[in-house]
Amino acid sequence: MKKMKKFLSLALASALAAGVFAGCGEEKTTESSDSAQSSSSSSNSDSSEGTLKIGSMGPLTGDNAAYGEAVNNGAQLAVEEINADGGINGMQVEFKFEDDESDAEKAVNAYNSLKDWGMQLVMGAVTSGACTAVSAETANDHMFQITPSGTSMDCVAPYDNVFRLCFSDPAQGTKSAEYIATKGLATKIAVIYDSSDTYSSGIYQSFAAEAKNQGLEIVAAEAFTADNKTDFSVQLQKAKDSGAELVFLPIYYQQASAILQQADKMGFAPQWFGCDGMDGILGVEGFDTSLAEGLMLLTPFATDASDEKTQNFNKAYEEEFGIEPIQFAADAYDSIYAIKLAAEDAGLTADMDASEMCDKMMESMLNINLDGLTGVDGITWDASGEPNKAPKGVKIENGAYVSMD
Amino acid sequence: MSFISYFINGVSLGSVYAIIALGYTMVYGIAKMLNFAHGDVIMIGAYVVLTCVSTAGLNPVLAILIGIVACTIFGIVIERVAYRPLRNAASPLAVLITAIGVSYLLQNIALLIFGSNTKSFPEIIKLPSLSLAGGKLTITGTTILTIVACLVIMAGLTAFINKTKSGQAMLAVSEDKGAAQLMGINVNGTIALTFAIGSALAALAGVLLCSTYPSLTPYTGSMPGIKAFVAAVFGGIGSIPGALIGGILLGVIEILGKAYISSQLADAIVFAVLIIVLLVKPTGILGKNIQEKV
Question: Residues of A numbered 155-214 whose beta carbons fall under 8 angstroms of chain B's beta carbons: which are they?
Answer without folding.
Answer: 195
